[in-house]
Amino acid sequence: MAAPDFDTIVNLAKKRGFVFQSSEIYGGLRSAYDYGPLGVALLRNVKSAWWRSMVRLRDDVEGLDSAIIQSPRVWEASGHVEQFNDPLVECTHCHARHRFDRLENADRCPKCGTAGTFTEARDFNLMFKTHMGPVAGDTNQVYLRPETAQGIFTNFENVRRVARRKLPFGIAQLGKSFRNEITPGQFVFRTREFEQMEMEYFTHPDEADQWFQHWVEERHNWYLELGMSPDNLRLRRHDEDELAHYAVATFDVEYRFPWGWDELEGIANRTDFDLRSHAEASGKDLRYFDQAAGDRFYPYVIEPAAGVARTAFAFLIDAYHEETVRDAPRTVLRLDKSLAPIKVAVLPLSKKPALIEDTEQVAARLRPHWEVQVDVTQAIGRRYRRQDEIGTPYCVTVDFDTLDDRSVTVRERDTMTQDRVEIGRLLDYLTDRL
Ligand code: GAP
Fold it and tell me: Model pTM?
């Protein structure tokens, strides 16, 4: 199926309460979004799938949750104060500001259409600044972190020591980052406040290339294992002139978004840039001591770094299908079951008290295990469609026969096949499938 157009997905996300505009009642704040009941469940599932694969299923990765506000010296040492800039131009005609390297036409303002009106490009630093404490001054200026990675580097020695780790090992972190993007846009794809999923993998310099290959493959496979279509996913190596100031090699995992191929995640070989910079700036020895070889050195770092909302958005797009079933249109999100916000819907065929009572009992039995939704309004066909549209893998219908045979009908989302299952066996039936 051709990719759904951008507006179709955005409308579904808004209509079904995945995403709301931030501060909507005040007219909305551009480039920030709030996540509604289904959105928060989808984001949580994306993060859990990432944590499961990056931390829980591995014996060489530890978790961390470092602070958003860190010493400003962190950002001086990391190079962000000097180099975390994008080129900014302003149109002298309409005063719109643009990111110069993203303009389709370097001479014409995309807002007012006037040519030859851009100012000289100047470096614009993307870090948000604020002040720590009650007095705002130069001495207490701090930054909101623009990436979670630096909190990992500054805690490298703490984690290595308490976890008694030898190389190679990784430290993973999920959390908010902030960038004052010049041109946020494409819905939740590029925002000024966002969540990242990052892992820094520390290795001997001689093994860095091998681990780089490993992580590029691992991360590519993660999306495929969660059901993303291989046709919509690709790896792209950065050209020399695209590389960030800390990287010697980077691959992007790219998704075919409605506007074209764009970045989901970057996997970079950051060399020893970070640990060496923080050691030099802090005066702390952050080298690793290899007892067997009697050797002391700065580990190299391989970093897979992804965005949570961007990933969730790509999964939504990829899962979206429109089809015709018995001459009626059906919209279905074929999300991997682990990502689906609601796993089971329990639907009484009518609002008769006896059916409602059984519905509530069935739902109560399932709730400790999965996200369950009970829906009692409108015809059963409409309710199935509503669940299909949000990707619920199983609908359990309580009907009049249930009162006699103590069984329910379980309908599967993708094939729409139905099984009659005894209520007493329902938990096992669903456990086998979810
Ligand atoms: N520590 C490395 C790093 O931060 P990055 O490529 O700048 O690398 C990693 O960011 C990922 O974070 C990106 O691939 C993207 O998924 C996400 N990301 C970056 N900026 C974002 C933004 N403004 N809005 C949403 N997601 C963003």
Answer: 0.95
